Amino acid sequence: MLKDIEHPLQKYIRPGTNYTTCPGCGNGILAQSTLRAIKNLELDFDNIVFVSGIGCAGWIPSPSFNTDVLHVTHGRAIAYATGVKLTNPKLKVVVFSGDGDLSAIGGNHFIHAARRNIDLTVICVNNRIYGMTSGQAAPTTPKNSKTTTTPYGNMENTFDLSDLAKSAGATFVARWTTYHARQLTKSIAKAIDKKGFSFIEAISQCPVHYGKVIGMRNDAPSMMKEFKSKSIHINKIDSLSNESSDDKIIVGELVNENEKAELTDLMQSLRTEVGTDG
Amino acid sequence: MKNNKTDFIQGNIACVEGAIVAGCKFFAGYPITPASEIAEHMSERMFQVNGTFIQTEDELSSIAAVVGSSWAGAKAMTATSGPGISLMQENIGLAIATETPLVIVDVQRGGPSTGSPSISLQGDTIQVKYGSQGEYQVISIAPSSPQEMFDYTIWAFNIAEKFRTPVFVMADVMVGHMREQVEYPEDYNELEIFDRKILDDPDSTEGRFLSTEVAPMPIFGNGFKANVTGSTHDEFGWRNVSDPKVMDNFIKKLTNKILNNKSEIIRTEKEYMEDAEVVLLSYGSVSRAALETVHTAREKEIKVGSYRLVTVWPFPEKEISKMSENVEKIIVLENNLGQIYPYVRSAVDGKAEVELLSPSVLGEFFEPNYILNKIKEAK
Amino acid sequence: MIYIKKDMCKGCGLCIEFCPVNILKFSEDLNEKGVYPPEVTDINKCIECENCMIYCPDFAIFLEKGGVKNEK
Questions:
Q1: Cα–Cα dist A31/A13, whole Å
Q2: Does domain A23-236+244-271 sit in CATH 3.40.50.970?
Q3: Of A34, B345, C52, C55, which residue is most buried, by most CB within 10 angstroms?
Q4: Does B237 contact A51 at a Cβ distance shorter than 8 Å?
Q5: pLDDT, tens digit, 9 for 90 and up, residues A190-229
Q6: How far apart are CA A228 and CA A224, in angstroms?
Q7: Which of A59, A73, A86 is the best substitution to test chain B (most B C-beta atoms within 10 A)?
């Protein structure tokens, strides 16, 4: 009997695929949050293109999402997505990227897409480590963390990706953790619906390769409970003293602008204005 | 479309106009000497023809956006010079692996490294063939005049679309910046313009990749649920990175798609070859000097012919081998230190003498007299 | 009704941890993957919050709202 009953999101999954992530990985939670957002928006899945790069996060849409998926080189997903969106603005284009993919090797594309305010939704799975290559330090790895490439502790400062997106000009920015799967669903729906560059930072657990760094090896439940205890909503941030805020994850919808012109709209106006022999 | 019959224009501008005639609707590029005029002219023209221009943050994103655009259904191109090609190489590999039709114009300049932006060099001949990792084949076309920048950009789009693969237009400073009279077609409707074959039905069981006959492309937004990846994959895009047989099929289908169709892709131009004893073998801007030399030599009743490779890759080894049976000597003229020279030697395989001749100063125009003296020395 | 696709489970324990009424526990039997998937101890206590479903990284547990019943 059980074989006939499907997961409510099964229709979005490409037949013949399943999630090959490590046990407890946040990827599947974020896949669900995204698909549930699309389901709630009642969007035609065929009208959404997913683009992803290299790293564990790249495997969230590809090949599992049963629509057009483009799985590209390390760091370049946003650049590919830009070409897709500019060419067919009717498509919703969603990029999945890890923190290394997005902010190290692909950092330039990230800030410039935000600056252009092109209508893309970028979902960053920030697990604060290079998971696919087994646990090297990323630009998001907390200071002093011991990783496989920082055996004496990480000397470098960390990127705040949401701040970066905000400064670069994104019109919608939200940060949540995998613990906030419901809030993520709502914010992802808003991001996809919004015309303009939208950024979702999803703090996620890598129980295998980051878990070992913080003494929670293979322990996804403890990592997510820590997300819960460390998170503070942006609206409550003023009540925190500076001392305790360092260790906190500020969550919530950090930017939601409505006034900024979007790139594909501007280009369409220009075509109307200067078009001759199209 | 241009309604006037001729224009006195730069090669780079002719290239843009050719692209528009071919149906190009997307250009992404990054400023670089000596190719910037292409981006500049595209920025004006694309929006006039219902197309898109974007100046990206770097060359990596230019080629990436072009690939994305092609998957969204547009004929798309970028233009750069050697340093930009170097930066694009990884994503060019993805374009080859995913069988993405697009055109890359390389207005070559001096190198290595930053080199000499305004000095001509055929320095990228090999880098476009083998610059990205792995085993693959490319198509490259070498124009020698603004007229050919127009004509061959159209042709480049046609073969890119037909074979679902990137095509390089290998210009250089001389051809890109040269101004000459360019004739536009009398009747644009009579031009042969080839559009890619698109998958016609989402439920089709026809393969979408890896056919030497060229598989129909599952363009985004049509319900094809395209599964596109730069990883090793099968005819439907399913990734398989552990089975050597799948990789063997992946590489051989991609390469044979081009190699099996060499007769359709390869173009050579022959002048005075019927009775030639010495042959000047050249490509691109150098072919102008070769031709000039042949004319001078013939006036002096020296039996010299010109054998020009219009397409450099795939390499016409059979054609060169056959040609070499009837000649004494082949002088390979290249504005570099011999990038196709080893290929020519290999194709000739001892049937004639093969010698390399670079300009006396790299980057300067080949002096016809300099070439002629070398011929006389050889005789 | 809670459905558990036992062989899709990788045994991470997130559904058990985040069940607010503590009606999930690791079962005694290994699945195909060699881990212990969850089982429902008392379906009548289920409040249909969907935590087990939305926190499952493997799409292995889900529920249908409206009436609770343990699917064997």
A1: 10
A2: yes
A3: A34
A4: no
A5: 999 999 999 999 999 999 999 998 999 999 999 999 999 9
A6: 6
A7: A86
Answer yes or no: is C69 within a domain: no
What's the domain range around C28? 2-63
Compute the distance between CA of residue B133 and CA of residue B230 in angstroms, rounded to an integer.
Answer: 12
pLDDT 10s digits, B117-134: 999 999 999 999 999 999
With contacts defined as CB-CB under 8 Å, which chain B residues touch A70? 68, 71, 220, 226, 228-229
* pLDDT single digits (tens) B156-184: 999 999 999 999 999 999 999 999 999 99
Name the nearest CA neighbour of C62 among A35, B112, A144: A35
Reduced to 3 states (helix: H, G, I; strand: E, B; else coil), residue A48 is strand
Of B345, B263, B276, give the one whose Cα is nearest residue B304. B276
Beta bridge partners of B281: B307, B332
In a domain, C55, yes or no: yes
Q: Which residues does chain A have within 8 Å of residue C26's beta carbon, measured at their own beta carbons?
A: none
pLDDT-derived band of residue A237, with 50, 70 and 90 as boundaries? Answer: confident
Distance of CA A38 to the CA centre of its chain: 15
Q: Report the phi/psi class of residue A271: left, alpha or beta, with left for phi > 0 and alpha for psi in -120 to 50.
A: alpha
CA distance B145 to B178: 7
Omega of the bond prior to B34 within 30 degrees of 0, cis?
yes
Per DSSP, what are the bridge partners of residue A97?
Answer: A124
Q: Measuring CA to CA, how many Å separate B256 from each of A74, A276, B250, B261?
A: 28, 41, 10, 8
Distance of CA A225 to CAs A178, A222, C15, C19, Å? Answer: 10, 5, 13, 13
Bridging pattern class, strands B278-283 and B75-80: unpaired
Contact (CB, 8 A) for B293 and B368: yes
Burial of residue B192 (CB within 10 Å: 0-12, 13-18, 19+) is: exposed
pLDDT of residue B157: 98
Q: Which residues of A touch B (CB under 8 A)?
A: 14, 16, 46-47, 49, 51, 62-63, 66-73, 76, 78-88, 90-91, 108-109, 112, 267, 270-271, 274-278
Domain boundaries, chain B: 6-190, 267-378
pTM, to two decimals:
0.96
Rounded CA-CA distance A70/B220 in Å is 9
Topology of domain B267-378, CATH: Rossmann fold (3.40.50)
Helical (H) or strand (E) element with B93: helix B82-97
Q: Decide if C72 is inside a domain.
A: no
| Residue in the structure block whose two tokens are 């930017």 | A255
Domain membership flag for residue C30: yes
Beta bridge partners of A252: A175
What CATH architecture applies to the domain B6-190? 3-Layer(aba) Sandwich (3.40)
Amino acid at C10: K
The one-letter amino acid code at B94 reads: L
Q: Is the pLDDT of residue C67 over 80?
A: no
Model confidence at A2: pLDDT above 60: no
- pLDDT at position C71 is 46
Kindly report, residue by residue over A102-156, the tens digit of the pLDDT: 999 999 999 999 999 999 999 999 999 999 999 999 999 999 999 999 999 999 9
Write the residue in C3, C8, C64 that is nearest to A18 by C-beta.
Answer: C8
Per-residue pLDDT at C72: 41
- Has residue C68 got a pLDDT over 70? no
Contacts of B374 (CB under 8 A, 6+ apart): B331, B355, B357
What are the domain boundaries of chain A? 23-236+244-271
From chain C, the residues in CB contact with A2 under 8 A are 3, 5, 71
